[in-house]
Design brief:
Blueprint (H helix, E strand, L loop, with lengths): L2 H11 L19 H33 L14 H11 L32 H8 L6 H4 L27 H11 L6 E4 L2 E6 L2 E6 L5 E6 L13 H12 L12 E2 L2 E2 L1 E6 L2 E5 L7 H6 L1 H5 L5 H4 L9 H11 L3 H8 L13 E5 L7 E4 L5
Antiparallel strand pairs: 1-2, 3-4, 4-8, 5-6, 7-8, 9-10
Length: about 375
């Protein structure tokens, strides 16, 4: 082997003292703090800016919602004695010996000339009354209206009331119970005693197995149609007891056993149970009582899958791609603006996602 070939052979067979780096070779670790603190600073700044923007949006929304909100009438009171009385009325302190009374016991035999009988007309409705499109308030509320006295006296007409809701179910609960106020009876400011409301009088039997309910005469649905015992009986027989469109609620059970509703006359009913049911009165005053109040027979019967106009029901159900059962449920839903109500508020505008606008019910009792 020549000297040149020997040198080439030695070079090919030699092992380099420091190998060339490759993509698979591990890199030497760098100090963690070199990258961590800048990352932390950038992340913290992003979070701060996001929270700032969120608070700014909420602040601007709050300014928008304050539009049209009147000032607190308390701030306008200058008389010291009046302000002291106002503070007493607004106090959250409870005096069990002197519970506040807001529902007044009145003599209905005195008729329209009685001092308690409604005579003032809302400015919002006066124009309709003057044009003959709406009966006067004395005729709208009937001969046995519920007479209430507010803590701070008689209020003033007008103003806007803004209310936020978390979701559509909150709106439903609000319109069906919190602002509905159409139960047979209602709680007093301290809870007890439970007072008549949609009913004029409620009388239990000696063993609490039966409750006789006497409805107020002259109560009307929001479309002006009279509300009578027939509405309750129709609701009970054809809605709640019909398994296809309803079910028997807990308000009509005692120890899991269903009760029954008997019609005595146009304004008198008897709720009968197989066992003593002393808690029925409180159940009727609660949210459960409001959730299962009757639907208007004159409106709902036409949509009933078994009793209504089947040709119309089939056409509507097909156009909405739902079943007749679902159509009936939609029509009696508390958010359906077309369904007559007994509540003090009825929808003026309604969309599936809000906002919603409610106005006074001219026939509220």
């Amino acid at each position: 082997m020549s000297e040149k070939e020997k040198n080439i052979s030695e070079v090919k067979g030699s092992t380099p003292s420091s190998p060339l780096p490759s993509s698979s070779s591990p890199r030497s670790p760098l100090p963690a703090t070199r990258y961590f603190f800048p990352y932390l600073a950038r992340t913290s700044l992003k979070i701060f800016l996001a929270l700032f923007c969120l608070l700014l949006i909420m602040y601007l929304c709050g300014l928008g919602l304050r539009k049209g909100v009147s000032t607190n009438p308390y701030d306008a009171i200058t008389d010291t004695a009046v302000k002291a009385e106002y503070e007493k009325l607004r106090s959250p302190a409870i005096d069990p010996k002197n519970p506040p009374e807001i529902l007044l016991d009145v003599d209905y035999s005195a008729g329209k000339n009685a001092a308690w009988h409604p005579k003032g007309e809302s400015p919002l409705l006066k124009k309709l009354v003057d044009e003959g499109k709406l009966p006067p308030v004395a005729d709208r509320v009937g001969p046995e209206p519920a007479v209430y006295r507010g803590f701070a006296g008689i209020g003033k007409y007008g103003g806007d009331w803004w209310r936020l809701a978390e979701d559509i179910d909150s709106v439903r609960l609000c319109m069906q119970y919190e602002l509905n106020d159409n139960t047979l009876v209602r709680f007093s400011p301290y809870g007890d005693p439970v007072k008549p409301h949609l009913a004029r009088e409620v009388v239990p039997s000696d063993n609490y197995k039966a409750w006789t309910v006497i409805l107020r005469k002259g109560v009307k649905w929001s479309d002006g149609v009279p509300f009578t015992a027939e509405d309750i009986c129709w609701w009970w027989k054809n809605v709640q007891k019909d398994e296809d469109v309803g079910y028997i609620p807990e308000t009509m059970k005692v120890n899991g056993k269903a009760g029954e509703i008997e019609k005595i006359d146009d304004y008198t009913l008897r709720y009968v149970f197989p066992e003593p049911n002393p808690g029925w009165l409180y159940m009727q005053a609660s949210a459960a009582g409001a959730l299962f109040m009757p639907a208007p027979k004159h409106y709902m019967e036409q949509f009933h899958p078994k009793l209504g106009n089947r040709e119309m029901i089939a056409k509507l159900a097909k156009s909405q791609m739902i079943t007749p059962k679902q159509l009936f449920a939609d029509k009696k839903h508390p958010l359906n603006p077309e369904c007559p109500k007994l509540s003090p508020w009825i929808f003026k505008t309604y969309t599936s996602n809000g906002p919603w606008t409610a106005v006074r019910n001219p026939y509220y009792f």
